């Protein structure tokens, strides 16, 4: 199938003498052009899974295929927005956004134009010449988002990209992202802790179990139309409730695990 195929993937880390299973038997297919949101309790392995799809780490078991080809490392077909904004501190906002375009050998003038256009898209017109330390946390994250969109990869892997933003900025970037996705047909995997955000953005919402993470259930989200205020649609509340109840048990299990670990070590 075309798209991303995650087949029985597990990931074990070696932490000092012990081996630590973060993911165990993850199975998930993301269709080409699909927008999938991924939710799960803190520590269940969401970022780990995204790293594997990005090719930044290798699974301990199973395999990940993109359009039928096993992932063997990072590639220009995939763009990542990390949970911790990863900007080059010695580059301005503009130069950070241009970075990915340099890798793709986009000519200089075109690079500058696309970078400016995307900084404007995320509400940062006028901040092109600022260095990361001269920007707020939310602004840095927006530079990272602009960089990944300007880079224009087929697959966008986004790890809680809007978590550090105020509610208004978040909503406008959510809308912008949906527009970009509708226009370009990218395949998107988007991690979030926000149930509203997951239901608003995703065509499907994959819910993970507590660690070791597996896919607990995938909820198909269908609205009559995306036009109008989706959040006011009664179906929105129903999906929200369904995802919330699937998550609730897993979050409780994750918290119990943490308490147990704390009592062993304390
Ligand atoms: N390099 C590593 N070495 C050892 N353990 C790791 C490593 N990376 C992640 N882990 C462990 O794997 C588990 C999953 O981590 P991960 O960052 O994927 O969780 P997450 O679902 O993204 O959590 P959050 O929602 O808090 O971001 C955690 O228990 C974490 O401590
Ligand atoms: Mg994470």
Care to give the gist of this entry?
It is built from seven helices and ten strands.
* Percentage of residues in DSSP E strands: 15-25%
Sheet with the most strands?
A: 6 strands, mixed
Compute the gyration radius: what is it? 19 Å
- Name every ligand kind in the structure: adenosine-5'-triphosphate, magnesium ion
Number of domains: 2
Helix tally equals 7
Structural overview:
This protein has 266 residues and is of the alpha/beta class. The chain has two domains: 1-77 and 154-233, P-loop containing nucleotide triphosphate hydrolases (Rossmann fold); 87-152, no CATH class. 40% of the residues lie in helices and 24% in strands. The strands form two sheets. A six-stranded mixed β-sheet has the order 6-7-8-3-9-10, sandwiched between helices. Strand 1 and strand 2 form a beta hairpin. Helix 2 (93-103) runs parallel beside helix 4. The longest helix has 32 residues, at 234-265. It binds adenosine-5'-triphosphate and magnesium ion (MG). Residues 46-47, 83, 159 line the site of magnesium ion.
Q: What topology does this entry show?
A:
Layout (H helix, E strand, L loop, with lengths): L2 E13 L2 E14 L3 E5 L6 H9 L6 E6 L2 E2 L7 E4 L11 H11 L4 H14 L15 H15 L3 E5 L7 H18 L2 E5 L3 H7 L2 E5 L6 E6 L13 H32 L1
Parallel strand pairs: 3-8, 3-9, 6-7, 7-8
Antiparallel strand pairs: 1-2, 1-4, 4-5, 9-10
Helix pairs in contact: 2-3, 2-4, 3-4, 6-7
Bound molecules: adenosine-5'-triphosphate and magnesium ion.
The site of magnesium ion (MG) has 4 residues, from α1.
């Amino acid at each position: 199938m075309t798209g991303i195929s995650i087949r029985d993937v597990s990931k074990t880390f070696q932490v000092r003498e012990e081996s630590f299973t973060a993911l165990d038997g993850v199975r998930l297919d993301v269709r080409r052009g699909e927008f999938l949101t991924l939710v799960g309790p803190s520590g269940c392995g969401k970022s780990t899974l995204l790293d594997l799809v990005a090719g930044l780490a290798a699974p301990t078991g199973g395999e990940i295929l993109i359009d039928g080809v096993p992932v063997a490392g990072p590639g220009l077909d995939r763009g990542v927005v990390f949970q911790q904004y990863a900007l080059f501190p010695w580059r301005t906002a503009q130069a950070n956004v241009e970075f990915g375009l340099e890798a793709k050998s986009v000519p200089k003038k075109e690079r500058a134009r696309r970078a400016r256009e995307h900084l404007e898209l995320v509400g940062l017109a006028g901040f092109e010449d600022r260095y990361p330390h001269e920007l707020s946390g939310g602004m840095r994250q927006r530079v990272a988002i602009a960089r990944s969109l300007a880079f224009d990869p087929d697959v966008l892997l986004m790890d809680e990209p809007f978590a550090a933003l105020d509610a208004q900025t978040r909503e406008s970037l959510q809308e912008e992202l949906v527009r970009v996705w509708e226009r370009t047909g990218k395949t998107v995997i988007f991690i979030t802790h926000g149930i509203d955000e997951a239901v608003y953005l995703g065509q499907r919402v994959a819910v993970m179990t507590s660690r070791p993470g597996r896919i607990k259930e995938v909820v198909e989200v269908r609205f009559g139309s995306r036009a109008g205020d989706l959040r006011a649609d009664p179906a929105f509340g129903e999906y929200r409730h369904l995802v919330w109840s699937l998550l609730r048990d897993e979050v409780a299990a994750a918290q119990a695990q943490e308490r147990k670990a704390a009592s062993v070590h304390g």
